[in-house]
Amino acid sequence: MYAAGRETLTVDAAVERFLRAAPLGEASRRAYRVDVEEFASWLRQRGQKVEDVDARVLAEYTSLLGAPRPGRTPRRLAPATIARKLAAVRSFLRFTLGRARVPDASLGPRRPRRLPDVPKQAEVEALLDTLEPTDPLSLRNRALVELVYSAGLRSREAVDLDLADVDFDQELVHVHGKGGKDRTVPLGEEAAHWVGRYLRDGRPALARGAEDALFVSVRGRRLDTSTLRRLVPHPHRLRHAFATHLLEGGADLRVIQELLGHSSLSTTQVYSHVDARRLRRVYDSAHPRS
Questions:
Q1: Active site residue 239
Q2: In whole angstroms, what separates CA 55 from the centre of its chain?
Q3: What pLDDT was estimated at residue 2?
């Protein structure tokens, strides 16, 4: 912990210790650094230490995030941004002080519930049809997008896959999720077909040396998520489509939670609202008393 039985750390040292030791992905680590260092700077300006933080101090910081700054453009951060910053600060405090010292009270403004932008099945199929495989790179691209949609993968999860993570015999994909949480998802028939073709006819022409990555660049190195974003401007929409199309097909919400790797069912429940909109449209068009 921060001080019990150990030398007291400065605020900056505590921040660095958190960022090094916490089980964070690289993108999350960069985002957390900005938010936590901003909080640490605020503490230093007030002459406070990390162990001084209690519910009152955290409430004051929350108020600051949404308040105008004298002589500067009003901050007016969006509720989602404030929630993200507070989540980073709470993680830092739980790691540094212990869970019992971090207040659980809801401090940020209520966030409006935003339903995900979900492409229809025909839109997904049209996108896949544009990825006509004519060479090793285009074959890789088709296999990559097919697998992202088929398995509901995050961009980082897709490019982090190794060859050994795809089990054709069991028709499974072993996914390395956020925060070190691994999961296993089914390998769909179409995805298996295209990944198999890529491994047979595409990857050998791209691979260099002993690279274990499933998807490799023209230089034979592991892909970056930017490659997927060039193919699909908003690849997370495919993950939304995966979940919504499963729900529309009758899948249980808890099964979808497991497949997506959500730690809380409340995160997955947003898709039930999307499906409710579809059901309402069907009801309005079909029921004589609608």
A1: yes
A2: 29
A3: 47
Q: Which of 286, 148, 127, 131 is nearest to 214 (CA)?
A: 148
In whole angstroms, give the CA distance from residue 277 to residue 195.
34
Looking at residue 59, its pLDDT comes to 83
Q: Catalytic site residue 101?
A: no
Question: What would the two tokens of residue 184 be?
Answer: 């296993």
Residue 185: the pLDDT is: 93
Of the residues 85, 140, 154, 240, only one is catalytic, namely 154
Q: Which two tokens stand for residue 148?
A: 């992202």
Radius of gyration of the chain (CA): 23
Active-site option among 178, 183, 221, 222: 178
SS3 state of residue 111: coil
Eight-class DSSP state of 214:
S
Residue 121 has a pLDDT of 86
207-230 b/e with 16+ CB inside 10 Å = b? beeebebbbbbeeeeebebebbee
Residue 283, pLDDT score: 56
Query: What residues of the chain score a pLDDT lower than 70?
Result: 1-9, 22, 67-76, 103-116, 266, 270, 272-290
262 is catalytic: yes
Q: Is-contact 50 93, C-beta < 8 A?
A: yes
* 178 carries an active-site annotation: yes
Residue 190 to residue 183: CA distance in whole angstroms: 20
**Catalytically annotated residue among 271, 273, 278, 283:** 271
Annotation marks residue 176 as catalytic: no
